[in-house]
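Lecture notes, continued. The same structure-token format from the folding unit now serves as the input rather than the output. Read the line below as a description of shape only.
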């Protein structure tokens, strides 16, 4: 499901915008694992200024980079920075659900379906641009990336509930499932 960021005029919560710091505080104060719908609601109310994201930015060659904003028992939030052509392995979240917000740039998401008999197969594809919000329920299998044809950097904000542990990774056309531990954030 993809939705667009809503500004003040269209917001279902007029006058109740959250800043990035407010969003972080809300997540820090949770006392249980939030539903994906609850995370969406918070993100849709949040207006994130470039200056608020600035401390979490940093790009590197090879892999996309991960910068943790907060983490507690119930939820974590990361800022990911992608150069053109950088992408995740095909993975699921092994029990966590996740919301992804595009702060700047173009994100391509491919989803897959897994059948024991035939292995992993393509399911769908979508493109999200600045302001776009998407999410994955358990047990969605997907791959995210900044397409090399975008020719520009991508900045995305990810909220996982509960925090990510060991992920499962997949290969197209194969029934093999591997385990994958995401790299520790480049900046915690
Ligand atoms: Fe993911």
């Amino acid at each position: 499901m993809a939705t667009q960021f809503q500004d003040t005029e269209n917001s279902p919560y007029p006058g109740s915008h959250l800043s990035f710091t407010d969003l972080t505080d809300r997540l820090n104060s949770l006392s249980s694992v939030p539903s994906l719908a609850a995370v969406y609601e918070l993100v849709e109310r949040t207006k994130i200024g470039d200056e608020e994201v600035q401390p979490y930015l940093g790009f590197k060659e090879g892999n996309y980079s991960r910068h943790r904003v907060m983490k507690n028992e119930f939820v974590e939030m990361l800022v990911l920075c992608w150069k053109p052509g950088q992408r995740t392995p095909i993975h699921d979240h092994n029990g966590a659900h996740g919301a992804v917000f595009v702060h700047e740039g173009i994100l391509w998401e491919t989803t897959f379906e897994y059948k024991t008999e035939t292995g992993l197969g393509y399911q769908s594809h979508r493109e999200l641009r600045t302001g776009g919000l998407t999410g994955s329920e358990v047990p969605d299998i997907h791959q995210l990336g900044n397409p090399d044809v975008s020719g520009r950097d991508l900045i995305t904000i990810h909220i996982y509930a509960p925090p990510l542990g060991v992920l499962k990774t997949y290969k197209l056309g194969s029934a093999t499932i591997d385990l994958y531990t995401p790299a520790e954030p480049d900046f915690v």
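Point for the exam: The pocket of fe (ii) ion is lined by residues 91, 93, 98, 136, 142, 144 (CB under 6 Å).
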